[in-house]
């Protein structure tokens, strides 16, 4: 029995709270790239380019040609839980949310653990504006003056007030967001990243996923200063297979089977599955497993495990080395809970076991037939 007084309970200072929260949303540079890329897609961009220095730790810049950000909204851009997307909790519950973002946490989080600057121009704007952010707030250009920008209920600040915060610049329609010195104020996190190259590979992985899933959007990713992109799709492509061809080459794209399970309108399993998967004798350098659920890049350990097991067995006989699998699942919005994980990487969905079984058995049928026939089928 302790006879000492209990330690007092006190709320943490706001900056500490925000920094802790930011550390959950942004575990590593690729999480930030994913959030910024999703914002660009939410803004209906048709071109998105990503540039990174030192695996995104020193710098990451995402430039798009989307709808842009109104100058008077810059004040809320990095404010936590400020968003243009979600308005009511019911929208989230009803699965009505058709944007990646919904909780206004990404840019706020980034601004608490990095230096953020944003240049943006709307279709109606006469020029672009640039602002810089720190710890959730828009910084005045001259640190000496800090006029009140007002809260959400206040009228939009006038041009004279905005002048103290925003620099007019030239620029085309769209948004460029630059994030520098990620985790500069979280030394333990910063030091954990000893291999910037490995972080860049993760960034390339997430950008590739979106480039495959959004063949209509021209997406590039490069190291800062490099003249050649490491990944580039031209946009306006008709199918993920064409995007795969642009990224991984014609040989890879040609040797993929289609999976297309329409939604069964009579049964209770309301899932539709589309995707592409490699033959069991494929010998890619690295395995690829891209999963999208309702257009979000997510992880499903159970589906991945089942697919890996399927290939492991078949590849033994077929002499394959690694597989390429891209799956896109569409479920009723109300069956998916996207808000279970801070990085939105995992989602919960109803009937997961049965859906995994359906997908894997469909793929197994195709791969086993092919294995038995011992021929290389080429899907057009
Ligand atoms: P969320 O995406 O959840 O709304 P974010 O912190 O990612 O939260 O972004 C906050 C808001 O900033 C968005 O709701 C959007 O209005 C605006 N925004 C962010 N990035 C862009 C962009 N690239 N183009 C246009 N608007 C953007
Ligand atoms: Mg967002």
Automatic annotation (TrEMBL):
One of its GO terms (molecular function) is ATP hydrolysis activity. GO terms for biological process: mismatch repair. Keywords: DNA damage, DNA repair. Residues 244-368 form the DNA mismatch repair protein S5 domain. It comes from the Eukaryota. The keyword DNA repair applies. One of its GO terms (cellular component) is MutLalpha complex. Belongs to the DNA mismatch repair MutL/HexB family. This is DNA mismatch repair protein S5 domain-containing protein. It comes from Fonticula alba. The chain holds residues 1 to 380 of 740 of the full protein.
